[in-house]
Amino acid sequence: MTTDGIEAVFLETHNWGRMAKFLQGLGFTVDFETDHNSGQFRNGEGAYVFVAEVPPTQQTSTRLVLKVASPEVRPGDGVEIRTDFEPTHYGTREMTVHDPDGRVWSLQAPGEE
Question: How far apart are CA 28 and CA 42, in angstroms?
Answer without folding.
Answer: 5
